[in-house]
Amino acid sequence: MKVILIEDYQTMSKKAANIVESQIILKPHSVLGLATGETVLGMYKEIVKSFENGDLDFSDIKTFNLDEYYGIDKENKRSYYYYMEENLFKHININNANIHIPDGMTSDIEEECKIYEEKIERCGGIDLQILGIGRNGHIGFNEPGCKFEALTHLVHLDKTTIKDNSRFFNSISEVPTKAISMGIKTIMNAKKVILLASGQEKAEALYKALRGNITPKVPASILQLHSDVTVIVDRDGASRL
Ligand code: GLP
């Protein structure tokens, strides 16, 4: 595991964007695993800038998002579909058919998850998976106590996650309690992983994930067993390391 310690959020975002951009340039048919949340917003901004400068071509890039809230439709401004559209997809030349996000409104969860995995496999697997980390050590929406062997599945969100994510909703009661998420095994199958962490509130989770025992209690700790992980962390996020 490589840890890149960076001074601040802005520089961390640039570094992460740089890694994603290199992946796209070196392999124009790359399959990217994408994350949502506040941490990766700066990185998406940088990627959009590079696209606007003419440095990137997304026409053959395929993407798979980590997760989507269950029971929320694409048009809902809180959906991860909407987030991706607003913060990345509408600004770049990606082919719509190459974008994959779990359908939060599916009537057949099992089938939706199975098909999602099949699509990833058919595309040749994820070349580069981008991750943030939850305050409770979650990756994607794989909460403490998750099964390491799980593929894409329906998850019940942890109380801390519902509270943390309520900042994106009008009230805590509006936050969905379930989501469809890639499983830990899906994430571990990615060829390369980058994990971004910023701010004091992530310091404890990052410390446990990187230096603690490998345990489902800290889902991100499994990354210690992945052969190609780069953690990009700012000074506050690294304060416990
Ligand atoms: C969210 C997402 C994760 C994200 C994490 C951290 O709930 N499901 O993919 O990495 O929590 O989010 P943030 O970057 O907003 O702190």
Task: Give a brief description.
This protein is an alpha/beta fold and 241 residues long. It contains seven helices and ten strands. It is globular.
Model description:
The two termini are 14 Å apart. This protein has a seven-stranded parallel β-sheet with strand order 1-10-9-6-2-3-5, with helices on one face. A three-stranded antiparallel β-sheet has the order 4-8-7. The chain has helices at residues 9-26, 41-52, 80-87, 109-122, 159-165, 184-188, 203-211; strands at residues 2-6, 31-34, 62-65, 67-69, 99-100, 128-131, 153-156, 178-181, 192-197, 229-234. β9 (192-197), α7 and β10 form a beta-alpha-beta unit. 30% of the residues lie in helices and 17% in strands. It is globular. The protein is built from seven helices and ten strands. The chain has a single domain, classed as Rossmann fold (3-Layer(aba) Sandwich), CATH 3.40.50.1360. The protein is α/β, with parallel strands linked by helices. α1 crosses α2. The model has no long low-confidence stretch (mean pLDDT 97). The chain binds 2-amino-2-deoxy-6-O-phosphono-alpha-D-glucopyranose.
